[in-house]
């Protein structure tokens, strides 16, 4: 039930109704969600192989926005505005809560999407690389929450409390490494590519440190920022 709640929270995949409490306690299973997202992306890429590459890449980009419900892109958009404006404290909180999009947010989100589209054009030569990339991106959510400091409030604080405990960290590490190792059997993956992709979730650690220094608490928007940065980085380092 916990995994279903997590899938329901992080994606639009119909997994039945769940609760945020259950999802927060199951965040250590985030790599499994990445496995599902990535597997669908790989299947979609192969289904689109007869189309022009630029059309297939655009559809994969659209798939990402749809399957995640735009959740992580929204977080990226909010947090990049905080970073670019160099806001801290109450100013950072105000920007995070503002539903409007500033010029920094629009500019950097557009750059992210253009870069992602360009990377997808190249990754289409070996679509299987989408799988370890999505697993890594989903893992970054857990890494961010585990590395964050401060009690805070809201969803991020709930997930922080639900993810605490050494046992869950051990389970998460085992699951993540096992799933990444399983992708080595895919055609075109390769040990070196998967190994480099597998470490990209560590990029969430400096984001966790930054959000604590800026706001004194974990932030769901910063977690979404981590997801998008790690996914893009994983696609970049895994280029065919």
Features:
240 residues, mainly alpha
> Mean pLDDT score, rounded?
90
Compute the number of helices: 13
Question: Describe the biggest sheet?
Answer: none
Helical coverage, percent range: over 70%
Low-confidence parts: none
**What would the principal axes of the Cα set say about the shape?**
globular
Number of strands: 0
Order of helices and strands: HHHHHHHHHHHHH
Rg from alpha-carbon coordinates: 17 Å
The total tally of domains equals 1
The secondary structure category is mainly alpha
- Strand residues, percent: under 5%
Q: Termini distance?
A: 38 Å
Q: How would you summarize what this structure contains?
A:
By secondary structure, the protein is mostly helical. It is built from 13 helices and no strands. The chain has helices at residues 2-10, 20-25, 30-47, 53-67, 71-85, 89-97, 103-123, 130-147, 154-162, 166-182, 191-198, 204-215, 220-237.
SSE inventory with pairings:
Blueprint lengths: L1 H9 L9 H6 L4 H18 L5 H15 L3 H15 L3 H9 L5 H21 L6 H18 L6 H9 L3 H17 L8 H8 L5 H12 L4 H18 L3
Helix pairs in contact: 3-4, 3-8, 3-10, 4-7, 5-6, 5-7, 5-13, 7-13, 8-10, 8-12, 8-13, 11-13, 12-13
If you had to describe this structure to a student in words, what would you say it looks like?
With 240 residues, the chain is mainly α. The protein has one domain (2-237). The chain contains 13 helices and no strands. Helix 4 (53-67) packs across helix 7 (103-123). The longest helix is centred in the middle third of the chain and has 21 residues, at 103-123. The model has no long low-confidence stretch (mean pLDDT 90).
């Amino acid at each position: 039930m916990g995994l279903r709640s997590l899938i329901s929270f992080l994606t639009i995949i119909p997994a039945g109704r769940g609760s945020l409490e259950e999802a927060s306690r199951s965040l250590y299973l985030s790599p499994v969600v990445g496995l599902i997202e990535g597997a669908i992306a790989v299947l979609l890429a192969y289904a689109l192989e007869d189309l022009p590459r630029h059309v297939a890449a655009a559809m994969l980009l659209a798939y990402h926005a749809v399957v995640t419900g735009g959740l992580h892109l929204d977080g990226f958009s909010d947090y990049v505005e905080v970073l670019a404006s160099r806001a801290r404290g109450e100013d950072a909180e105000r920007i995070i809560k503002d539903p409007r999009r500033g010029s920094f947010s629009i500019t950097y989100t557009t750059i992210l999407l253009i870069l992602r589209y360009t990377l997808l054009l190249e990754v289409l030569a070996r679509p299987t690389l989408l799988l370890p990339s999505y697993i890594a991106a989903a893992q970054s959510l857990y890494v961010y929450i585990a590395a964050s400091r401060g009690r805070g409030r809201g969803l991020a604080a709930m997930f922080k409390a639900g993810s605490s405990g050494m046992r869950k960290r051990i389970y998460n590490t085992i699951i993540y490494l096992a799933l990444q190792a399983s992708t080595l059997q895919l055609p075109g993956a390769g040990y070196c590519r998967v190994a480099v992709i597998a470490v990209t979730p560590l990029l969430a650690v400096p984001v966790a440190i930054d959000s604590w220094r800026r706001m004194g608490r974990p932030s769901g928007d910063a977690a979404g920022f981590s997801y998008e940065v790690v996914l893009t980085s994983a696609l970049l380092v895994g280029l065919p």
